[in-house]
User: Which sequence fits this backbone?
């Protein structure tokens, strides 16, 4: 009996070990935060998870997430296979063995090795996602007392991520405008304009290390604007670092200018918790003009969200260089400060507050002959704004905002009050009705603008119509006659399909003895 009992115990332990070795342990997690670019997943421990591993959503067989970076308890992921992810979704990770035991036949040279499971998943880290938009439009102004004006415009935007599931991505945003019946009087007054705002290629060496070449705007240092050149970025878990080397676009025609060299770097941190997310970037940039220092400054950019109710954004630029009469100094000069906060009290009430203080940017080499004049006008243009949106009833939306511009010499000051009320479903006839009012008071002008707009959709909302009327009253404080203008217009847009839209709008404006007509048409193709 004793031997039988020992045998049973040994058999149970052996069976448990064998089964435990053949069944992969599963780690369960929860989606804690969702942004437009990243998915954050919370685990008890992430030591078994490696960057590049895939995560599965419950009830879906194929992988839905690829781990891009991680901390001890959470992972930052990208979506694959067009999965739909929401906060609170349950996610699991299968901890498969990282090494495959070779059998005797696999050791033979004439039989190929079975690839490791991680090698099979390499390509799945990069899922192709391409979206774009191309549009063409015309704008004509037919004036009763002056020459008519006509222009055409086209735009192209493409955002192609991981083309053919590769490591390469491409993005561009182009704008072309041509003014008809206008003579080109100088190089600064042309009738054709081509603006390239984005045109670049990105290469992901791995999910945490990328290179970008071309003209691009970096969202982590958005205040610097477009950069012509090379950008490199590397993630270290929740921390990251980046560097740029390139040129500023030309200040006159926004083209390429090899005389405007700029370079610098930045570091940043992402904090992610169940009810909190933040991203902070600190960097330094040096910009040159014809080889000499034009501007040198540091910047700070921060954004955060708490409980998905409070959103904060702030940015700051601090210049640390000046050159006056060939004398260089490292003076500190705050040139840009912006802070905004938005709080959602409930689905029916939210509020926004913002403050900004801006000084004119001085490029000491580009504007050598105007330095003294610019420094004499070195006054911070400040502004504050508040806005409240609320929904008193189910189909009624309303809001009011107040903004103020001011500076120490009382120049450029203005006070602006804006309010609106919208009835999303008009009783009996349907459609949407909006009423707005705006008053602005400045040093030389007081304006009052009231408007009404009615919108309605037909043919299952494929055809949309707008009718509006706007009354504008201008009262000048310098003795000029008051001005009263009336605007009446209509807009028609038709969705040929989900991606192709055509629209046309017309407007009649009258004041004194003038009657002017504006006609605007546009076609948009998305892909």
Assistant:
């Amino acid at each position: 009996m004793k031997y039988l009992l020992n045998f049973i115990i040994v058999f149970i332990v052996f069976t448990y070990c064998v089964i435990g070795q053949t069944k992969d342990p599963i780690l369960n997690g929860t989606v804690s935060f969702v942004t437009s670019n990243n998915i954050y997943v919370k685990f008890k421990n992430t030591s078994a998870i490696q960057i590049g591993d895939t995560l599965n959503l419950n009830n879906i067989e194929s992988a839905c997430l690829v781990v891009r970076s991680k901390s001890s308890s959470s992972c930052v992921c990208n979506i694959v296979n067009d999965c739909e992810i929401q906060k609170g979704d349950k996610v699991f990770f299968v901890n498969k063995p990282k090494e495959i035991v070779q059998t005797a036949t696999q050791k033979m040279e004439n039989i190929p090795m079975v690839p490791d499971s991680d090698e099979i998943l390499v390509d799945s880290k990069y899922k192709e996602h391409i979206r774009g938009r191309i549009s063409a439009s015309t704008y004509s102004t037919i004036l009763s007392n002056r020459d008519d004006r006509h222009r055409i415009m086209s735009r192209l935007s493409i955002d192609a991520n991981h083309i053919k599931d590769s490591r390469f991505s491409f993005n561009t945003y182009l704008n072309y405008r041509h003014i008809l019946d206008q003579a080109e009087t100088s190089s600064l007054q042309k009738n054709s304009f081509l603006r390239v705002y984005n045109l670049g290629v990105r290469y992901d060496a791995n999910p945490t290390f990328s290179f970008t070449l071309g003209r691009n705007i970096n969202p982590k240092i958005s205040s610097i604007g477009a950069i012509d050149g090379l950008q490199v970025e590397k993630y270290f878990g929740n921390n990251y670092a980046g560097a740029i080397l390139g040129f500023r676009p030309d200040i006159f025609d926004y083209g390429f200018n090899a005389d405007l060299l700029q370079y610098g770097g930045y570091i940043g941190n992402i904090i992610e918790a169940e009810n909190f997310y933040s991203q902070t970037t600190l960097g330094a940039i040096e910009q040159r003009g014809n080889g000499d220092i034009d501007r040198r400054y540091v910047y700070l950019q921060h954004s955060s969200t708490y409980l998905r109710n409070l959103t904060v954004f702030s940015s700051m630029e601090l210049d640390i260089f000046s050159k006056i009469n060939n004398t260089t100094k490292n003076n500190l000069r705050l040139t840009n400060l912006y802070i905004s906060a938005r709080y959602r009290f409930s689905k029916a009430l939210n509020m926004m507050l913002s403050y900004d203080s801006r000084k004119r940017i001085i490029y000491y080499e580009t504007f050598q002959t105007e330095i003294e004049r610019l420094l004499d006008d070195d006054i911070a243009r400040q502004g504050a704004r508040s806005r409240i949106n609320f929904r008193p009833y189910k189909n009624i939306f309303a809001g009011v905002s107040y903004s103020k511009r001011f500076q120490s010499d009382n120049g450029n000051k203005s006070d602006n009050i804006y309010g609106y009320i919208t009835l999303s479903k008009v009783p009996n006839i349907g459609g949407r009705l909006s009423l707005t009012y705006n008053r602005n008071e400045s040093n030389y002008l007081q304006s009052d603008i009231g408007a009404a707009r009615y919108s309605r959709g037909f043919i299952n909302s494929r055809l949309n119509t707008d009718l509006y009327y706007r009354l504008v009253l201008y009262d000048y404080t310098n003795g000029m006659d008051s001005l009263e203008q009336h605007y009446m217009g209509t807009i028609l847009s038709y969705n040929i399909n989900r991606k192709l839209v055509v629209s046309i709008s017309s407007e009649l404006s009258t004041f004194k003895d003038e009657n002017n007509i504006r006609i605007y048409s546009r076609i948009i193709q998305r892909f």
